[in-house]
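Here we describe the complex-level prediction in full. Unlike the single-chain runs in Section 2.1, the two entities below were treated as one system.
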Amino acid sequence: MRRVLSGLIAAVFVAAMVIGGGEAFASKGTIKIGSVYIFSGFAATYGQFAKQGLELAVDEINKSGGVLGKKLEVYFEDSHAKPPIALRAIRKLVYEKGVDFLIGLDSSGVAKGVVPYLKELKVPLLITHAATPDVTGSQCNKYTFRVSVNINQNVMAAARIAAKTKAVKWTTIGPDYAFGHQSWEYFQKYLSKLNPRAKFMKTVAFPKIATEDYSPYITAIMAAKPDGVFISLWSGDLVNFIKQANKMGFFNQGYTVLMSLGAATEVLYALRDQMPTGVWVGTRYWFLANNSPVNKHFVEAYKARYGVYPSYNAQNAYAAVYALKAAIEKAGTTDRMAVIKALEGLKVEVPAGDIYIRPGDHQAVLNVTWGSTAEDPKYPIRILKPMVIFKGEEVTPPVWETGCKLQ
Amino acid sequence: METLLINILNGLCYGMLLFIISLGLTIIFGVMGVLNFAHGSFYMLGAYLGLWLALHLHSFWLALLVAPLLVGALGAISEIALLRPLYNRDVSFQLLLTFGVLLILDDAVKLIWGAGYHSIDAPKGLSGTVHLLGSTYPVYRLFIAIIGPVIAVVLWFFFHKTAWGKMIRAAAMDREMASAIGINVPLLFTAVFFFGTLLAGMAGVLAAPLRAVGPAMGDNIIIAAFIVVVVGGLGSFVGAFAGAIVLGLVEALGVQFVPHLQMALPYMLLALVLLVRPRGLFGSE
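The structure predicted for the assembly as a whole is:
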């Protein structure tokens, strides 16, 4: 008993030394990254995916010698999906932990609340999920970059698919905040240009986030008899909606259905064979869209470590670390201003493909994948068949159209 | 017209689910005077346990039987271990404590089942659809709409015709008097908390086939349940039933007639009741 006790005391002592001393040693030869995602509440799965992708990239890089000989070190904070909490978390990371770079942000609402303050913090942020056009548009600034697909790109691709279908009368079901409304706004804008015959119905549905019961919305949309329905619900909300819509016969009405984030793996894993087939779904990364060795390596490594196919949030976070590595190496220094310069116009290969960060608005130009859901005995989830890949240049609006003016 | 009828059905189905949740909340408050913030988390736990048991026991019905009992047992344990020492203190202590239980349960569920979403289908026999009013309607939703009134009738009999039911009502009216005439009030409280959380768990299992089972799924429903209980009258059994139907219909018909006000409607209803009839539709003075 005494030996157990003394062993325990020794263990605690050692642990205290390692934890306590770690920080002082670490700060010398490391590059500190602060990372803010949603780790609690209904969308906690997004933070978890991002963390997994990020840690995979960091471990790979550190194992092969780090960046400029320095190891990467990441600190995570929870945004609770709320802008003020995210901002507090970022301030804590910058002032207390002394991070050099920031990676993160789920939710357009959070991003819009945080981005203006980067000018005072003077730390570059690589956004990997939040998709509002504003942060690389009207709100754009020197410190804000995005390495992932935004609403414009995703919805432009949706409009191209919609224009090829027979559907004329369109309506939408989307979450009642910036993301849902902007998605619908851009969908109308792009589709009306591609197909002047397209009509946009008065009956639309914008249920609040985390709605329990979608049945009244489903009934309302079905009663309006549309030809096409554009759906921008995401995560658990999309799972809720699909389950309830399935039972109400929504998918048997012959509508052309487009779900801008329907190919998110967490949704497909939750629903499995309850996910209807023949529905057009978009995503910000699809693990089967690219045959490159970089993607193959990522998918295999991720699946081996975490047991599932990588979601877009995992890839985007993984890609951000490699983009940052490329920028630091291009700059030859970890000086923030030099890295910002290096990020502007950076070309780097990530699992999603080649990405190019435009100097004009700091938005990444990359391929966008859509597809129609289909069954495949080789996969536990629905996959995309046929799959349509849009070239980044085709679906990214020119800088002048985004409203971004970088000095 | 058909849309209206379908939407009334939609509202009734959601309302009955709300009723089962709110009933537990209102019974616990009515008898013990405890406003249980963690009630939504017991609902969530019911959904997770129901899903897990249904997968492992290969029977939704068995899960519907066992999961609520487990949730109720955990409720009883938390009453004995956590709430009981606080009865003599200010009400705010109980509020804080149940809020703490909410946080613990939310994180525990994430630790055990992960942060992802899960889904199960309705049990065989109820997973289909029927033709109704010119459109197809899910059988399972009708089942929920029917099970609510069944529970209401059974409980009404329990409270008015059985000795235990009468004891609970006596304790709700006057704790000291009940204890003076020989009712074991602490045991009764534990039983009431067991039963209230059991109802929350049962609602969770029943809700699982309708939605994504995921983290924090109780945090939204608890707000709706609070609105139901306040509108119906705190502690009132009939009030919970009426409040749930009213809120269910307001949500469903609001979407149809005033979609722009949809988000505000439940709160407008709450404000209206508080202004005009602060004790709720069926609350006692």
